[in-house]
Write a structure and sequence with these properties.
By secondary structure, the protein is an alpha/beta fold. Helix content is about 35%, strand content about 15%. The chain is globular, with a radius of gyration of 18 Å.
Amino acid sequence: MASKLGLVGAPVQSGASQAGCLMGPDALRTAGLAIALSELGHQVTDFGNVAPRNVQIPAHCNPAVQGLDDTVGWALALQEMALRAASEIDIPIFLGGDHSLSIGSVPGIASRAAQQNRQQFVLWLDAHPDIHSLHTTTSGHLLGSPVAYFTGQSGFENAYPDLNSSVPAGNICMMGIRSVDESERCALANSDIEVLDMRALDEQGVAQPLRRFLARVAAANGHLHVSLDVDFLEPSIVPAVGTTVPGGASFREAHLIMELLHDSGLVTSLDLVELNPFLDHRGQTATLMVDLCASLFGRTVLDRPTARF
């Protein structure tokens, strides 16, 4: 079914460890994202790139924290833009930018779900759980904090924006996790987040656990946000990532996830994050991300007829 899709550029790199993610939105556009989605019959609107708010936040007591002013400025702008886009079109697609953009995108679309009296769910496709608070991060890179923040955990007071709508931890499924530090292990152990690390995916495959999660979303008549980090994938097929972690999802596993998401008809918003074109090889990663996005929105190798029983 054709949808009204909106591209929202978020050239944020204040949460990252390396420069380059700010070029991500334009790389995805150059790789033909709008064309690919239009060819599938969707109506595509490009909202352009969001600009961060100019804010000044007092220095945090954790001296490791970096880029706090810029990250909060992006969060404020993206929360507002996410709510607007989700109100105007069917499915906003946030083009990153590092994963700190989810500090803005997820609370914004969760506010839209709350307006419609529906639950917000999140599928987090990433090598990392990103569940640090400002107090627990040792790297200081705030791309590691979105999940802790939008689930309403403490540790962001007087820094990040007050949450209008949080996402219940039990409404989150993480897939592909394989790089977790000790404080994140503790946070996950004390939460209701479903974590499917790479061992779980090796043992179970991707289809069965994803179908279980999608059945929960459908039963709740929920909104589903998908946050796809480039480092979810095996680094050998996506060179344009600054947070390389070996042993990620394969080309076919990633496409199968996208195809199952499309079949479900449940996705209401999407992040494409951590694309660093400065590290790419002739647009290889940007092209793959466009291909995965096209699979999520209906591109198939063959049109499969409905089975008759």
